[in-house]
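Protein Entry — a single chain follows
Fields — amino acid sequence, structure tokens
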Amino acid sequence: MSVTTSPSSSSLFKFAVDDCDVEDDKALGAYRDKRHEWLEWLEGDPRNSINRQIRGMMWDDAAFRALNEARRFSSPEYPTGATAPLLAGLIDQGFVATQILSITRLVDRRQDVISLRRLLDDIEAHAHLITREIFVCHDGLPFDPVEAERAYWEREGPPISGGVIGLPTEGPDAFDISRMAHEAFDKVSATGSGPRSRTDCIESGVFSSLRAALATPDIVAILQLRHKFVAHAADAASRGRAGIERFGVTLNQLEAGQRALVQTAQRIELDLLWGTTRGVVPVPQYDHFIHLDIPVVATDRMGELGEWWRAHCDTREAWTRSPS
């Protein structure tokens, strides 16, 4: 049976559906469309992809920790701008707010956002499409690596002893890649040591484990902070009901939330989609410490800055005396 997929999803694959070693080619066509969508959420969206969100979160974390480390270099005898209360307070508050927003956006369950939790929910809802044969053979690999290897060596002849062997990495001759794909699927299916079947599916416990990783106590606490302090200004009664007075936020809490998100994203991409591992902290293509070794304000301009501050405050105070 001939099955067509959308042009956008077809461009991801090197082999046509009809050329893939699957029995359910209709399910394969549907899987390819969903896989394209999932990979778009993970990496393809130019503004809000999941990996882009994670890399931005981790870049901000590295930048803050570098500035926080710079404070350690300051002393009463040799103070630095890194400890200026005006600057340090702004940096601290901005970092905490953006990290809380970054972490909680990635576990947002709404259907109109790009988030790690939405991706997980959607994959689970379409888990029936991810059978062993589709996981292994969705882009031309053979289902039976043993038979494919036998046929390959029968056709190519035995390898030369001591020579360098280059094995196929794609298509129906890529028996070694097929073997690795089966081994990867073994880890997420309930097959165990039993015989492999084309219709094997992902074990439900895999999804339960991933959901739990996105709802750790640290992430739940960070969600409460967002709802009561960052995204909304909760009143005293609401804060009390949530027990929010017991919550603070520490670097360790934020790190625990970040780690859960990074590891879950990698598990989804590698274990469920047999995709690619990603870097975590972006590598800057410039000197990201430039100008940190000079004062924030030149000494001879401090008086001018003070005058600006007073004028600015006077302007804002005038708002209370003049109609808008």
Confidence is low (pLDDT under 50) at residues 242-247. The CA atoms of residues 213 and 259 lie 10 Å apart. The chain is about 55% helix and 0% strand. Residues 12-157+166-297 form one domain.
